[in-house]
C-alpha cells in the first residue's frame, strides 16, 4: 500500500474506533465509513476493531449496521478476544447472537462456494492453513508419536510440533469417551448385536469402552493410519481381539470400500481424528447416510474444534448441527463438565487445546424417512 494511503487508513481507522467508543451517533459513524474509514481496521492500542468497540459500548443497532457493512466477525484483539467474546462477557445475548449468526452465515456461504470446483477460497477460520503435525495430515502421519504417562498417572499420546509437545490424545478425555459410549449404546435397539465403526484409535480409550459394554460389539471396525499407533495396538493385543477388525489407513482410503459399505451398515459410528480441520469432518458427515444401518443407528464425533475460545466453539457446534441436518441427521447435545482448576496439571507439558468448562457432546440420528 502507498505510504500516504496507509497513514490515511490508519488515521481514519483510529478515528472510527474512537468515535464508536465515544458513543457518537450512528449517522456520524456511517459518514466516516462512507468517507473511507476502513471497517477492517484494528487499533494500535489494543488491537480492537470497530465491531469490538460497538460490542464494548453495547450498541445493538451499531453492531447490526457494522455487520451489514462487512465488519470482520472473527477478528481478535491483542488478548485474542473476538467481538463475540466481549458481548459474552457483558452477558449481552442480543449482540452475541447477531455476531455469532454473522459468523455462521459467512461460514455456510464459504462452505457452499468451496464445493464449486472453480472456487479457490480460503475460509476465515474453519479451515486449516497450518502445515505442522497438528494441522497437516501429511506431516502428522510421518511424525514420530510418543506414548507416556503424565504426573497424574494418565496416559498421553503426543507429537512434537516445532519443539512443542502437542497432545494427540490425553487421559483427561476419558470421561468424555465414557459418556459418549453410554449415549451411543445405551438403550440401542441393536445392543445385542452391535456393529461399531470407530475412526482414530489414539489411546484406545473409546474402543476399550466399546469392548467393556455388557454385550461387546459383534463387529468392531477401527480405522487407524499412523504406524506408531498401529504398533501400540499390536503391543496391546488389539489385533487378536474377538470381533475387532483393524483397517490400516485413513478413513478417506476406506470410506467407499466394501468393508464399510457392504456389511449392511453400522449401528454406531464415531470419529475422532487428528490434524484434520472442519472441512474434513464435514466430508465425513456427507458419507454417513451410506455407512449407517438405519434410522436407529447413532453417530458421534469429538467436538473439539475451536475449543480454546467460547465464541468459536459455539460457531463450530452450530455449524456442525446445521450441516448434519443437511444430510438428514438430528443432533442432540449434552454437556460434560470438564472444568478444572489450573493447578490440576491436566496439560503437563502439552499445548492446551480445550479450555471450555463444558464439552458439548453430540449424538446424531438419521431422521426416519
Ligand atoms: C484423538 S486420537 C483418537 C482418540 C480416541 N478417540 C481415544 O479414545 O483414544 C486421533 C487418532 O486419529 C488418527 N487419525 C488421524 N487422521 C486420521 C484419518 N484421516 N483417518 C483415521 N484416523 C486418523 C490418529 O492417528 C490418532 O490415532
Automatic annotation (TrEMBL):
List the PROSITE patterns.
ANK_REP_REGION, ANK_REPEAT, SAM_RMT2
| Swiss-Prot/TrEMBL ANK repeat ranges | 46-78
One GO term describing the cellular component:
cytoplasm
A GO MF label:
protein arginine N5-methyltransferase activity
Entries under Gene3D superfamilies matching the protein: Ankyrin repeat-containing domain (1.25.40.20), Vaccinia Virus protein VP39 (3.40.50.150)
Name all RMT2 domain ranges: 131-369
Keyword list (alphabetical) reads: ANK repeat, Methyltransferase, S-adenosyl-L-methionine, Transferase
InterPro entries in UniProt:
Ankyrin_rpt, Ankyrin_rpt-contain_sf, RMT2/GAMT_Mtase, RMT2_dom, SAM-dependent_MTases_sf
Task: Please indicate which superkingdom the organism of origin belongs to.
Answer: Eukaryota
GO BP, one example?
A: methylation
Name this protein carries in UniProt? RMT2 domain-containing protein
